[in-house]
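Q: Make up one entry.
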Amino acid sequence: PNGSGKTTTMKILLGLMKPTTGGGTIFGHDIVRESVAIRERIGYLPQHPQFIEYLSAKENLLFTAKFFFTGPKKKLEDRCDEMLALVGLSEKSDRPIKGFSGGEKQRLGIALAQINYPDLLILDEPAAGMNPQETMELDNLIKEISKDGLAILLIEHDMKLVMSLSERIFVMDYGKKIAQGTPEEIRKDSVVIKAYLGEDT
């Protein structure tokens, strides 16, 4: 549910917020002392992605890519074109972001989050603000991305989307774990999750 601590947890793991107590590691790196090394290997789509609205989709990607890569401009442009094609925005690559719909901005955010060839892709509520058709397109997009073996951590309160996409699920409420397991285990054993799904208990 909203306010359960999902986004806060991700920000702590990525070094964007400091924990008041405790700690953790990702890829063997300490989340407080070595957050830069962690972020180099992670693609992150925040809950509310920000873009330079007067720039085009491709210009936004190029701007971000320059933080990760040095080398020929053609190579950067090829990577940006590859990501735009992946998320179905090739035909809108030269349009300013300010004219994009909410769903198009979310897809562009997913492209941007993968620009650095991450080992882990974190998507924080990517379906936020999407209509049912856009959510279905997102479902298909995430399935397509995961075919290449990229690990994806999906943070989402739409349990039907979670059940459709996930191999393993971790459910939080008020900062505490209330359920964990495969979709089948969650569906079978958790009365709470069934209630979220609107199913009979």
